[in-house]
Amino acid sequence: MTAAIPVIVCGQTPSIAQSVIAGLRPEIEVVHTVLSPAQGVAEIPVLLRGNAPSNNTNNLGTKNYSKPPQAVILGAAFGVHLSEMRAACKGDSKVPWLELDQSKSAPRIGFGYGAALVERVKSTIAELEKEGKMGNDGVYFY
Predict the structure, then answer these.
(1) How far apart are CA 124 and CA 30, in angstroms?
(2) Per-residue pLDDT tens for 48-64?
(3) Residue 18 backbone zone (phi > 0: left; psi -120 to 50: alpha; other: beta)
(4) Residue 107, preceding bond cis, omega within 30 degrees?
(5) pTM higher than 0.90, yes or no?
């Protein structure tokens, strides 16, 4: 079995983040969660440099920082903050950033929402791996 791909998940609702974390296993390991754009600006650059953030109290991920994250996955509320968070990571980002494609249908935010997006995330990461894009900075829709 291959090792799980370590990722960061950005989402403002902890219950949805928890369902995403559970659904991504075992192929993808959510090592860190970001619950606000300000937290993302502060912590994502640190994580992408291979370091652990100083404040881990709200993190729902595994906190396994033995390997740097290989992708950043953004929930619906974070798309408008993508450029701000990427700018904070200038020079540190060598990973794909996955942004929710709002033009594709999805259930309303609430029960079942996170689970519905999990397959889209897994499919996008598998496609990026196949195309050799996992080690490169870029924005991709899922």
Answers:
(1) 16
(2) 999 999 877 789 999 99
(3) alpha
(4) no
(5) yes
Q: Please, where are the H alpha helices in 1-142?
A: 14-24, 37-48, 82-88, 113-130
| β-bridge pairing 138-141 and 5-10 | unpaired
Look at residues 8, 98, 110 and name the one whose alpha carbon lies nearest to residue 59.
8
Residue 20 vs residues 46, 53, 85, 134, 137: alpha-carbon distances, Å: 23, 21, 21, 20, 23
Strand, coil or helix: 105: coil
Q: What is the total residue count of the chain?
A: 142
User: Between helices 14-24 and 113-130, what is the axis angle to 10°?
Assistant: 50
Other beta carbons less than 10 A from residue 101's beta carbon: 13
Strand partners of residue 32: 8
Instruction: In whole angstroms, give the CA distance from residue 12 to residue 123.
Output: 23
Which residue stretches of the chain have pLDDT < 50? none
Tokens 């904070």 — which residue? 88
- How far the first Cα of the chain sits from its last, in Å, is 25
SS3 label, residue 14:
helix
